[in-house]
Structure formats: C-alpha cells, structure tokens
Amino acid sequence: MCFDLHPSIFWMKLSRAMKIFPRLKISEFILRRRQYVFCSVVLFGMFLLLRYYFFYPSESSLNDGKCSVVFEHIMQRFKADADIYDAIIVYADEITDVEPIWLPYTGNGYITVDVSEKGKMYIRGLTDEFLDTGFRPIVDVTLQNQYKSMLEAYIIHFKDGKVVKLQCYDVGNQCVQVVTTYFVHRTRPSVFIQHISISNPTDTTVILHLHRYEDTLQRFVKSRIESQSQVSAFQYIGSANGKVGMSVILSDFAKLLYVSSKKVEQLLIPSFIARYTVSEDMDKDQLKSDAINTALKVSNLAFNISSLMMFFTKISKAFYAVTALDDYSIIEEHTQAWNQLWNSGLSISYSKAPNGLNGDMINGTMYYILCHYELQSDNSVEFSSRPSHCYSSHSTLLPSKLWAKMNSVSTILLINSLWSYTLVEHGCGNLLLEGATGVVQALLLSFGALKHTTHHLEFDQQPQDLHRDFFFRNIYFTKSTYVNIRIMVNDENRAVMYASVNRTSPAGKELFACDAGCLDPPIELSSSSTLIPVKRTVPATPILYVTDQREHIERLKMSIHVREVANAPAHEHHIIALHKHGHRLGGLPPAFWFSLGVLLILFHLFLIKLIYNEYKSDRKPYPSWRYKINFIALEIFDALCFETSEAADKFILSGQLSTNNENLYDILGVSRDASLKQIKRAFVDLSKKYHPDVNKGDRTCSNRYVKIVEAYSVLSKPESRRKYDSELNAQNYSHENSERPSNKNYQSSYSYSWYSWNPNLNSFYYYARHSTNQAKPNDDAADVNVRVIRLVFFLTIFSFVLQFIQHHIQRLKHIRNMEIVDQFNADSEFYQRTLTAEQNMKRIFGSEE
C-alpha cells in the first residue's frame, strides 16, 4: 500500500528522507560533543593562522634589503669562530641601546685601547697600573654620500688578538663595505695599527671622511718640525707622581678619501706611543730626543738620532716598513704571536645550568687579562724556573667576583687586578713575571686546581666536581714537555680521565702518572691518551699525580695517608641533566611537562563532568550508534508512506495501542491519573529491577526494560502524554462501540504485517524518533556551530594557501640572496687583492707634487 505513489511524489519524499543523514551526524556526534569539537577545530585553525610567526620569525633589525645579505655573508666567517668561542660578536645597537657584556678592547700589556666610541688609549705606568694617555688614536670612517641605512658590528677576536669593525652602507641598492681592523701589536709593544679596507661595488665614486679626535692632545707639546714630514710628534711630561712622560707619534692622512666605482681601497694607519721616566736635570731638547729614541726602541725600530731632521727621515722609513702590506707581514706577525699563546688553554662542554661558566666567558676573561701582560722578548714559552706551588687552592671555575661582564674599562682593570692578586697569593707570582705565556699557564692551573710541587704535578679536583667534560691542553711541566688532561662523562654518568704528553723536542723527558692514593703501579704517559682510573679517597686527595721520576711515585705511596680508596661513583642523573638541559627534569624540556600537566588536568575535569552529568541526569541511556539503521528506516518509511509527520505519529500511536492490550500506564504500573512524581518514582524502581546490567543475559528483562524506557519517555512529557491519552480514549471508544468484527481482524493483520518495523514493538524506532524530536530545539544552536566550523575550515584552507605563498616568496628571496652573494664575491677584490707598499705609502702620505 505504501508504494503506489506517483513517481514525482516518491522522489520528493525520498529526497526528504535523504536529509536525515546530515542531521543524524550532527545530532548523534557533533551536538553531544560540539564544545570539544568546536574548540579543537578553532585551536587548530588558529595554529595554522599563526604558523607564520612560529616557523618564520620576524626579520631582525639587521635585515635591511640587499645590504643585509652582504652583511650577513661577511659575518658568516666570524660566526664560525664565535661558535667555537674564539670570537665574540657585538652589534652596534647593543653598545648604544643596552649594556653590552663585552667591550671592544685590545692591548699587548704595554698599551691598551678602548675601540668603542670613546676610543681612549691607556699605557702601563711605573707599576702595574694603567694610565690614561689623554688622547684617542681611533680614526673614525664615515660615508659622506647619501645612503638609505647602515649596519654595524664589532668582532672581538680572542685568538687573533684584534677587533674588527664592520660597516655596511646601502648606497643605490648596493652595499659599500668598510672593514676596520684594530690591534695593538703583540711583538711591537708601542705600535697601534688600524687597517681600513673600503669596497665600493656601486657605479659612482663614494667619499669617506676620516677623522681623529686630536682635541684631546691639547696637553701634549706638538713638535714644530713635523711639517717637513708626514708624521706628527707629541710629548707630555708628568703624571700622578710627576715622574712619567709620554711620546706619541701619529701618521697624517687625508681627511677625505675618494673610492672609485668598482674599486677597493686599503689604508694602514699606525700610531706610536712610548713611556719614559722624567729626570729632574734633563733639559727639554734632550727629553725630546730620548723620548723619541725610546719610542723607536720599544717598537723594535731603533735608530741613531743625530738631529730631529734625521729622525723624521728615519721615521718615514719606519712607517714604510710598518705599512708594507706584502702578505700582511705585520698583521701575520701579530696574529701568530697571539695564536701561540692559545696553544695552552681549556676546552669545556657547554652547560645550561644557571650561572654556569662556558667557553665564551672563560676565553673572553683570559683575553682581557692577556691584554694587560707583555710578551717575552724572545717570544718563548719556556720558563726560567719550575712554577713550584702554583696553584695552591680550589678551582676558580666557580661563580665568583672573578667572573663579570667586561663592559667598561674600569671593570676590565678591576677584574685584571683581582686575578693578579688571586694568582700571586696562591703561589703563581713567578709565572706572572714570565709575561703573557706565564699568565696563560697560571690561569690554566687555577681553572683545574692543578698544583706544581718540587717533583710532580697534581690534579686536586674531586670526583663529585667532575660532572662536565674538560680538556686541559699543554700544561707546562718541564722544558719541552707538556701534559694534556681530559675528563669525560660517559653514558653511565661516570667521570673518565685520560692523560697524555706533548714533547716539543726529542729532549723532552718521560712522564709517569698514578691515580688517587698512588696504590697502583705507575703508568707511563705517551703522546696517545692513556686511561687513568678516577678514584675517591677518604680523606680527599688529588686524583692524579704526574712526575718525571718513577721512584718519586714510590715515595708518594709512603707520603699519602688515606683510610679508604674506591672507584668514584656515578653522578646523579639530575646533576647531569642540569648541565645538559638547564633543569633537573631530564631530557624533556619544561614545555613538555607543562603540556602533560595541562592534559592531565583537562582529562580529570572531563571525567568529573561525565560523573556529574550521570548523577544529575534522569538515568536515560545514551543513544547508541546502533540506532542509526533503525532510525533511518523509520524516517524513510515515514517519508514514503505519509504526507506529513503528524500522520506518521498518529499511525505509530494507533499501532502502539492496537498491538498490545497493555498500555504505557500498565507497563509502569501506575494509574492514568498518576502525577509526574509518581511516574518518575515508578520508572526509577522498575529501571533498577529490569536494567540489563543487573540481568545480564536475560532477554526478557532487556525487552521489558526497553518498554519501561519507552513508556517513561512518553508519559514524562506533558505534550506527548496528552496526545497519548487522547489516542487511548479514542481507541477504547472504538473497541467498546465496534459492530464489525472484521475491524479486529484488520487491526490484527495490520499490526502483524508491520511487526518488524512498528516503533511500539521495536523500541529502537520509538526511542530514535523521540530522541531526535528532543534534539530539534538545539538545531538552531547546531546550525550556528556548523557555520562557525565552516568559517574556521575555510580560514584553515586559506592559511595553507598563505603558507604556500610565503614558502614560495622565501624561496625566491633565497635565490636572489644567493645571486647577490655570488656577485659580491665576484666584485669584492679585497678578498684576494694585496696592495704594494708604494701604493699604501701614497695613500697615507699623499701624492708628491
């Protein structure tokens, strides 16, 4: 009877039935979990929208078009040295805007220079104090042409003992580079060098202004004969005690420098300064002669001076020798001297622990200290005597006032004094008298608590302090013999020690070592690393002894008195984790643990919400996904067989009433005039009795429980109960006044024929319909959520498109940057070009007319 419809009506009703599917998905899943789904989708969309800021950070202040590409390309050479703590990069804005950690500074123990904007020069007095000379030898280079922007940075190169100032000017979308190298020559104590290199890749001539602050020389007496040469001589008599004089010899230079298009220009500007003691009976002319002669001698450029005219002739030759740039001989001489100082030193693993000392602080502090100590005259690393009883205290690798920010000259001088006092008081005074090489050894001994005695070298560290990797290289022992000590923390968190020997000549002695307590036989050291057990003694003793006499180890056994000797235990995990990760939680970052804690809190809140809802609900079971098929079949049947949903409801209720003589009131065991409270109480009691969880496996109880739920779902709502009562009254009336017996047969056959889908006989149909009707008031809210979710979805797709465009832009920018770098390498001739001495003399002194 249901399929005799017109085809157009059939397809119309079928299309109405097909609308069930999207409504089913939203009502069954999204509506019940819409808060969680909505929040998840919104958070995911926001993450994609903000992904640009996570993976493509905003460009730094240094990124300024084409010039920044060249700037960063030049900086790559210095960043490689900074990564191994051989250099420090200080950007110009750090000096002007914030307090820097490192001050651009250079020195050789005789004179020191603040290379920053102050540019002051200091000279060692009669004692270890450094005096302000009163003038600024720095030559500032500024571009006179119009430029869009300028990038600037200082590179303090510890290993080479110099400061490099890099300036990049954006002129006509091209980058004009000015590289200035400052250093006080290590082997020529009175010489301060400024090497300036200008590269002009533009199509126009650039003009640079060179300026020195000579107004600070007002207290100096200027020679009146310098006009006949290309140098200026200044003298100053007097100091705090009136016994010190200074002579300053500066080179003259043109105030404006013109650099042609596609050219590279280089300048070498030396300055000479000498200190001398003032004699009371010394006349002025003799003072000038002695002062100038002293300046030349200290600079290893001694001349016999018969007159001031001869002096200026020879000083020109001295300048010619100093400014000769063949293979940068004077720069190489300085660099090699500094590199030789760093042959001895300390390498240490990086620590993320609070207040942990790392390679940058250690190497930087050593550099600033070495700037205040002169090199030996013969540039030798051999000492006149064995450094006995140095260093006799605990390790200095601990947070203390010995380690501070080197951001001002006063702080640098203070730290230098503190280290000097500390080393002298702990037996290293003789090493400090040996100059810069002795200072390196004294610092190295203090770092590791290494102590020289009359016959041996002992490593007085304790196993519990060896929780980082250390490498002490080239510790001086005797002439031509050096010791290397390496400490490593293995995978078991145990400290492992290795020792080896370096011999600079065949005359180097053999060395022997023993561990803590010296109970084991002596171990002969070689050039390859030898494993030395790390042991702990009670009371504490050094963990390593090194000597050049085998019999001395036998004597050590009798002189070392310990109660217990055992292998050092492994370090606790949290100690190693503190250095490796900056916290004691282990290998995972704090963000992981924070996220895990948040997830646990959210999970428990969700669990509490479920328990609360279950307790406060009317004990209706949650709709199951197994109702889908039954519900779909019911809706399709309604759409195909009835014109309206009201007709379908009427058909369902009539079938319910005619199928079984037991009505809904009988199922709950209440009368027709029972109150809502009585109905609810009856439902609760019957639910407890017939619940499937209580009667597992009993199909009869399960069916009865379904009928109880159906009855309560109808009778608990006033509207559905009123409709049911009216239908029940009509049905009772029809049975009482029936005159045709065929009606009963018709009803019976009708009910029996549709038993498989009748909602009153199949509880799934009935519950699915009523649960859907209950969800209809929420359709408007669901539609709003769906619209928002759609909006977020389209925003997500849009963000993906933006990401693709951004990636493409970044790729094109990278290609352009590589082209700029290639062009820069091709145009910048100063990477390979070396100018002749005559060309440099011509730039410094000008062309002869």
TrEMBL record:
<keyword id="KW-1133">Transmembrane helix</keyword>
<keyword id="KW-0732">Signal</keyword>
<feature type="transmembrane region" description="Helical">
    <location>
        <begin position="788"/>
        <end position="805"/>
    </location>
</feature>
<dbReference type="InterPro" id="IPR036869">
    <property type="entry name" value="J_dom_sf"/>
</dbReference>
<keyword id="KW-0472">Membrane</keyword>
<dbReference type="Pfam" id="PF10222">
    <property type="entry name" value="DUF2152"/>
</dbReference>
<feature type="transmembrane region" description="Helical">
    <location>
        <begin position="36"/>
        <end position="54"/>
    </location>
</feature>
<protein>
    <recommendedName>
        <fullName>J domain-containing protein</fullName>
    </recommendedName>
</protein>
<keyword id="KW-0325">Glycoprotein</keyword>
<dbReference type="InterPro" id="IPR001623">
    <property type="entry name" value="DnaJ_domain"/>
</dbReference>
<feature type="transmembrane region" description="Helical">
    <location>
        <begin position="591"/>
        <end position="612"/>
    </location>
</feature>
<dbReference type="GO" id="GO:0016020">
    <property type="term" value="C:membrane"/>
</dbReference>
<dbReference type="InterPro" id="IPR018795">
    <property type="entry name" value="K2013-like"/>
</dbReference>
<keyword id="KW-0812">Transmembrane</keyword>
<dbReference type="Pfam" id="PF00226">
    <property type="entry name" value="DnaJ"/>
</dbReference>
<feature type="domain" description="J">
    <location>
        <begin position="663"/>
        <end position="728"/>
    </location>
</feature>
